[in-house]
């Protein structure tokens, strides 16, 4: 069983004149009163008694007190702690009656339980480090956080590149009617030369036709002349007639071939050669736009892949936390900061902050079953009741102060004493009787 505070007696400590307190073994015990009446001095007295000289108040002795400060605390494990005398020397007695010292108290008294504001005022990272140290997964969780951060940074950079490439591609001009590849001037010139060669061959055949036609006409004229000399030149005419017939046949064949010939135009190629630079400029523009779009798509795909990896890493990290033995359900660590039910410390309600702090401090030393809390004015009555019920569920004892004189307070401190407490009167001693004299009597 964890150790609880069973009773406190304090005299002449800070503002305390004389206070006796018997707190509830579990739940919330509230020390109430107005300001500057000695409420916080009760907590300081407990912290000094149990925590040793490092918790000794700067002005431990009450101003104006004749007797020295005196503290006595009884604990549930039977240990009695007492400070008294001019030097407030410490006496720690265990249940067997043997004396011990601060080392015995340190075994079951958690320093943060005596100074909870120290935990509550720590940085987010310090709180997270304490929690991770308690549940024993600090190193592994840090490694996973570093992996997630590296992936997140890489994904962010990839996303930025994808957007840049996308915007760059959108701003580039494209030419839908341009060829897919740059045009080669040498290919165009080669095609032009082939056409010119074919056209030259056609011209040669035309010239051949004209030459044959000319020769045919000459043969005809000669045939007419020979007709006049037919008688004389019958034999000669026969030969010329044969020649004419042959030439005529050849001429007719040549004529048919010439009529079928069609010259090819080089105008389109000549225009292409003239416009080749403009065409190739359009082709290059299209290729550049296509490459930019492809790069943007690749970066976008990589961004999505990294998002899936990060999601899985975060799920693994959450599984690690969920599998840990947490001091309080709902606790976690996000980006190196302590969270509770998804909220960071600054966003938690005051009651949730106290609940988290008490649970973590309790886990730091399970043998310590109490915490000291100062200034619970931030809690309304409903929240106080809920907090007290939670403390009882956790079998945890909390002794707290509150600027109040209401019914929620177990005791009220007024001018360094418990209000309405029976005063301790000094012992009555009989006064010596005075002799009475009677007139006339000797």
Automatic annotation (TrEMBL):
Q: Which Pfam families match?
A: AAA_23
- One MF term in the entry's GO annotations: ATP hydrolysis activity
Q: Which UniProt keywords apply?
A: Coiled coil
The keyword Coiled coil is assigned to this record: yes
Instruction: Identify the InterPro entries for this entry.
Output: P-loop_NTPase (IPR027417), Rad50/SbcC_AAA (IPR038729)
Q: Which residues form the Rad50/SbcC-type AAA domain?
A: 9-283
Q: PANTHER family from the xrefs?
A: ATP-DEPENDENT ENDONUCLEASE, OLD FAMILY-RELATED, DNA REPLICATION AND REPAIR PROTEIN RECF
Protein name per Swiss-Prot or TrEMBL: AAA family ATPase
